[in-house]
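Researcher: Let's walk through a ligand-bound prediction step by step. First, I give you the protein sequence. Second, the SMILES string for fe (ii) ion. Third, you return the three-dimensional complex as structure tokens. Ready?
Model: Ready.
Researcher: Here are steps one and two:
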Amino acid sequence: MDERFAWDPALETGVEQVDRQHRRLFKLASTLSSCSLDENCDEDTVTDAIYGLTEYVTEHFADEETLMEQASYPGLGPHRSRHEQLTADTMRYVARFFNGERVAAEELSEFLADWLAAHIERDDKAFAVWLRER
Ligand SMILES: [Fe+2]
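Model: Step three, the predicted complex:
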């Protein structure tokens, strides 16, 4: 598997549901990346992979925000803003792809893997620590 999309155990937050979804996101990003680089992978398959990834990003963020809401996490506001920013950036890649730029699919998977790792490290772990110490 491409190193960029390999799950790094250092990214575990200790919150079961969150970690499971993060692992799946990296897997989806990896699938999208290898398919977008493979000439034998047809347009429909890349499109499905894009849909699969963007749908799961949205679902994951909503689930995370629900967890934070239920726990009355004081950092929910800024965290939600970062999710919105990431979602908007994701949609820009998706739009480029649908405008005929196939390379946008590869860029999206890389962008997400990088951005997610940074977001997990900084923001999701902060929530996990707060949850444990509460
Ligand atoms: Fe998050």
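Researcher: And what stands out?
Model: The two ends are 38 Å apart (CA to CA). The pocket of fe (ii) ion is lined by residues 64, 79, 83, 119, 123-124 (CB under 6 Å).
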